[in-house]
Amino acid sequence: MRNTWWPPRGSSPRSLTAGFIIAGLAIALFVTVALRPSPAGSLGTPGPSAVAVATPSQTPEPTPSASAPSPTPEATPEIVLVPAPLTGLLVTAAQAQQHPIAVMVDDHAGARPQSGFNSASIVWQAPAEGGIPRYMMIFQEEVPAGVGGVRSAREYFIEWAAEWHAMYVHAGGSPQAMTTLRNQGSGQLVWNADEFRWSTAGYFWRVKSFVAPHNLYTDGTHLRKLAGVIGAKDKAFGPTWSFEPERDVEPPTGNVIKVVYPYESITYRYDPIRNAYLRFINNSKRAQIDAADGQLVTPTNVVILRMHFGPLNDAHPAKHRLEAADVGKGEAWISTGGRTIKGTWKKASAGAPTLLFDAAGRPVVLTAGQTFVQVLPLTYAFTITNGKLAPTDPTTNGALIRS
Hints:
Radius of gyration: 41 Å
CATH superfamily of the largest domain: YerB-like
CATH topology of the largest domain: YerB-like fold
Number of strands: 23
Largest sheet: 10 strands, mixed
Strand content: 25-35%
CATH class of the largest domain: Alpha Beta
CATH architecture of the largest domain: 3-Layer(bba) Sandwich
């Protein structure tokens, strides 16, 4: 008998080949089914040669190697702080390199409340004309929201601004000052920023809350732009005064400083809580306010410089302009941390710094923060009540007792 699996007689080679292929596929299918792992709960188990095919959800997690390094988190850039050259306060390196900007500010009663005090690193106040003093605010690490009212230049203010080669901001000035600015206002002493030249470019404007001439204003953003335009570029500045952080000691109470100008009196009252001096004008019960931020004016240090003033013999004697012997040396009273000491000031030339020394001739160390400099003619009065420490109790090993 003929084997039943053999192809019928007369089949072609292609048919024969197809038959073998079909048979092979059938055998392969049988083997695959036979070797498939049994479903869960069945008695069959895969043989040793069975290949398990895993779906993505069944892929086992790789076992971490003990020697494999762990991922490194991204490092946060470290902000490096440095002492600001005019205040000793810690600021960024970029802030410490901002070019100082000195702005002449009105002190007439019609200009109050002025703007810009609390952003200034140093504020100078000295007589200007007719017995009315004037301010010069020097900005460095902080950019003021508003500054004004801006007023005219005087020679001795230029020479104080020259200690930092500051951009000197003003609206005109005395003939003496304008001559200096024409000859040495391109960086030799200062960088001349006269409102008469730059107001049409939008760096200055008149505000409606005051009447002329007390209504000329600007702000820090425009002043910084103007500094770049005229060449007062940012760079590294070294300090001229020495500063130290606030001391962790019991502060005294009762330090009061009063300076008297013909036009007004200024009183500073030390606040041990703030470790700063509240500033009062003309015996007011309310401390002075900076209109730019609405906050109290509270300098950390107060310095009195005494020097000779005399009439400026220019072409306008009716204006009673003055000149000052600001180059040389004289008496100084330095107040910081509720204590006042008597010392001296020295300034070697128009562009040299005004240096401060104690009674023994050592450089004075101020508390890091803002400094107000009150410049007084020798004939002007001032009084100082030094601060006192609270009494000690001998039963507490000398520990201070607050009253």
